[in-house]
């Protein structure tokens, strides 16, 4: 996953929540985690609680990174992947939880979102470093070592079994949303519910700022210099945007994203970005990645058929530099204003 990349404000979204109310005060805390900056904005009724609450929230994110990072060979995820195939490994409840969610989304998206694409993703990372497309043989081998149907989860024993040799898991498409959501819960446990946790393009939103109906989210999916920003007003929801604005490679005149297409083993080339508003930040993160892989008609069907209310906004960059966006699905209760 892309945790080494430390971009600020992926995809150029801006969250503004300034209010005319004198109290409670708006406080903001920023720390680097998971290769990006996590930003916590909160309006505590008792400001004395804020610092300790933010500290606990960041500590939770750091603890989740120690479980889920694929850049740290000692993480629980990497230790799991180092086991011989066909070995049932007992894992933490957090790792089991995120893998269960990932597998459910893989099923729903027919593998467009698939955390077992680790070998394909690391091969693609090499391409982004070296600017040389992978050989056919390397791509075939990486795809052969991937596939969500070769990952077995047993809820009774809370064990995970990787069924193929050389399998590797990559949680880069879901872990930031999961961590943002977990951090928001920690803030609530400290009595602070009017809060937002933002991990570049992945946002977990709690109660709105005092006196407001929601958090104002400004989306610039292709960067702040392109197109008119889209405004969302959202509370009690997750909002994630996936696109190639910051992490891409251009080879032979073709621009490839850091999201890989399991059909080809290569980075995506479609000039789109996707925003998902979902009841939870974990779901929003995973679906934004999934809907980037799916063709827009399939993303629309996924949004319309989803048992949870999800709003999918597909942003398209046209050849002449103009942009347009189309929205699908059912707005979650917290999505107060939508294009
Ligand atoms: P970002 O990391 O920029 O917020 P995403 O949430 O879309 O963007 O996640 C992209 C990351 O997800 C990649 O860097 C990689 O680690 C992982 N990934 C790439 N392709 C897929 C895929 N098809 N399914 C699941 N995860 C993927
Ligand atoms: Mg994602």
Tally of contiguous helical segments: 8
Could you give the order of the helices and strands?
A: EEEHHEHHHEEHEEEEEEEEEEHHEEE
Q: Specify Rg, calculated over alpha carbons.
A: 19 Å
Measured between the Cα atoms of the first and last residue, the distance is: 31 Å
Mean pLDDT: 91
Describe the biggest sheet? 8 strands, antiparallel
Strand content: 25-35%
Key traits:
339 residues, alpha+beta, eight-stranded antiparallel beta sheet, four-stranded antiparallel beta sheet, 8 helices, 30% helix, disordered N terminus, binds adenosine-5'-diphosphate, binds magnesium ion
Can you walk me through this structure?
The chain is an alpha+beta fold. It has helices at 50-68, 76-81, 93-108, 118-130, 136-144, 175-189, 281-293, 296-305; strands spanning 14-16, 27-33, 36-42, 89-90, 151-154, 159-162, 195-199, 202-205, 215-219, 230-234, 237-242, 248-251, 254-257, 260-261, 266-267, 272-278, 311-317, 323-329, 335-337. The strands form 5 sheets. An 8-stranded antiparallel beta sheet has the order 2-3-7-8-11-16-17-18. The chain is globular, with a radius of gyration of 19 Å. The chain starts with 13 loop residues before the first strand and ends with a strand. 47% of the residues are buried. Mean pLDDT is 91; it is low at 1-14 and 16-21. The chain binds adenosine-5'-diphosphate and magnesium ion. Adenosine-5'-diphosphate (ADP) binds next to helix 7.
